[in-house]
Amino acid sequence: MELIETGDYGQLSDIACEEVCKAAAQKPHIVLGLATGSTPLGLYERLASAHRQGKANLSKVYGINLDEYVGLGKEHALSYARYMWYNFYELIGIPGEQANIPDGLATDLESECRRYDEVIRSLGGIDLQVLGIGANGHIGFNEPADFFARDTHIVQLSDSTRQMNARFFDSPQQVPTAAVTVGVGAIMGAKRILLLASGPEKATALAAALYGAITPRVPASILQLHPCVTVIADRAACGEING
Ligand code: PGA
Known about the structure:
This protein is α/β, with parallel strands linked by helices and 243 residues long. It is 32% helix and 17% strand. Helix 2 links the parallel strand 2 and strand 3.
């Protein structure tokens, strides 16, 4: 596992952008596994700007989003579908068929999970997975649990995750209680993983993920078993690694 410690969030986003642009230059139809949340916003902004300026051509990429809230559709301002279109997909102008996000409004959520795994499979898996990390060590919405779930599944969100995400909603009660998330199978099947972490609230989880026991209680710890992970983390997020 390679760890790149950056001085700040801006530098983290610059390096992540360079990595994604390099990979997309080598493989224009690259399948990108993509995360939501605050951490990748700087990356998406830089990628959109590189695309606009002709420094990168992202028009052929495929996006596979990690997760979506159950009960929120793409018309909902706080759905991850809306986040992705607003912050990235629209800005690089890719057609809907290339932008994949689980449908949080599906009437049959189990079938939606199977459909989503089939989409990932039919694209040949993920080439480059961009991940954030939760303060509780989650990746996607794979929450701390008794076992690692391989396939896309429905997950009950932990209280700590709902509290963290309450900042986006008018009240904590409005945060959905469940989500559809890809499992660790699709994430670990990615050819390469970029794990991004910023801020002191991620320091404990990042240290546990990189150097602690491999356990489903810290879902990101499974990344220790992946052969090609680059962690890009700012100084604050590395606070419990450096001692
Ligand atoms: P954040 O979320 O980027 O908003 O901190 C990361 C995550 O929960 O995976």
